[in-house]
Amino acid sequence: MAAPMTIGYLNGEFADLTSLRIPVLDRGFLFGDAVYEVIPVYEGRPFRSEFHYQRLQRSLAQIHMEPVLDREQWGSLLRELIARNGSGSMAVYMQISRGAENTRNHLIPKGLTPTVFAMTAALKSRSPEVLERGLQVITRDDTRWGRCDIKSTSLLANILLYSEAHEQHAQECLLHRDGQLTEGSSSSVFVVKKGRVYAPPYGPEILPGTTRDLVAELCEANGTPVREGPIDMTELAEADEIWIASATRELLPVTRVDGHPVGDGHPGPLWRAIDARFQDYKQESAND
Ligand code: PDD
């Protein structure tokens, strides 16, 4: 049996997660001055790790931080953390903050030593019920900041929106700005209409999703390429299928939006086709 997932990493040290400590003046703690990644791991192997590495580098650059880990350090940190946590399937959470100063300061200080933290969490397998019935979602105004392309740990708006969805017995909250769909509170979104797959355009309003990019590759291979462009919220009512995608949830069908059925109210055929490709891809990457 896999060892319990309790070994974390902090600034070069691996130790029991609950024993790791950061200084109270860490800017990640004070300001949310930090970025993060969530990397799925299947049977001990990080999935699409290079894409997470690249997005982390991009997030750091966008908040004016130097690269913190080179590829080799990234790879060996992941490998060791995964091994110490039993080498099974899990999600690695990695966070890099700007570090701790000796005071609270709005100005970005120079020369701080970044805080690098990582841990693992259980990767919940998708329940047969969700695959059979699909997800319910609510829609809300996108109350987040204007740089959602940065994978920042400042997630207050996201957690409020996600929690509101749960209070409404829904499993995700789809967001909109000026009447246009952006993304989920913790996922990317796709809309299918008449056999065509649409996704909101990349820009400052949404996170470039690693899972979305893989789904785009799989859609291309399926002969149903993803078309990027603005999606008006009124189009959701006419959609045949809606999907959400994330590193921890993979690709899931949405079958109810604000209580109304999507298409015939069941997971759609195109979702089944692309999800089957997704599962094959996962299997292949576990074997290579
Ligand atoms: N979140 N958009 C938002 C706002 C997200 O929080 C996420 C994922 C995504 C999908 O990105 P990816 O496919 O690379 O996971 C899109 C992660 C899983 C999280 O915060 O836990």
What is the secondary structure topology, with strand pairs?
Elements: E1 7-10, E2 13-16, H1 27-31, E3 34-42, E4 45-46, H2 49-62, H3 71-84, E5 90-97, E6 115-122, H4 128-133, E7 135-141, H5 156-167, E8 172-177, E9 180-184, E10 188-193, E11 196-199, H6 210-221, E12 226-228, E13 241-246, E14 250-257, E15 260-261, H7 269-287
Parallel strand pairs: 7-8, 7-14, 11-12
Antiparallel strand pairs: 1-2, 1-6, 3-4, 3-5, 5-6, 8-9, 10-11, 10-13, 13-14, 14-15
N-(5'-phosphopyridoxyl)-D-alanine is lined by residues 38, 183, 186-188, 207, 209-212, 245-248.
Give a short overview.
The protein has helices at residues 27-31, 49-62, 71-84, 128-133, 156-167, 210-221, 269-287; strands at residues 7-10, 13-16, 34-42, 45-46, 90-97, 115-122, 135-141, 172-177, 180-184, 188-193, 196-199, 226-228, 241-246, 250-257, 260-261. The chain has 288 residues and is an alpha+beta fold.
Series of secondary-structure elements, N-terminal to C-terminal: EEHEEHHEEHEHEEEEHEEEEH
Distance between the termini: 24 Å
Number of helices: 7
Give me the secondary-structure category.
alpha+beta
Describe the fold and architecture:
Helix content is 28%, strand content 28%. The protein is α+β, with helices and mostly antiparallel strands and 288 residues long. The chain has two domains: 7-122, Aminotransferase class 4, branched-chain amino acid transferase, N-terminal domain (D-amino Acid Aminotransferase, Chain A, domain 1, 2-Layer Sandwich), CATH 3.30.470.10; 128-287, D-amino Acid Aminotransferase, subunit A, domain 2 (D-amino Acid Aminotransferase, Chain A, domain 2). The two termini are 24 Å apart. The site of N-(5'-phosphopyridoxyl)-D-alanine (PDD) has 14 residues, from helix 6 and strand 13.
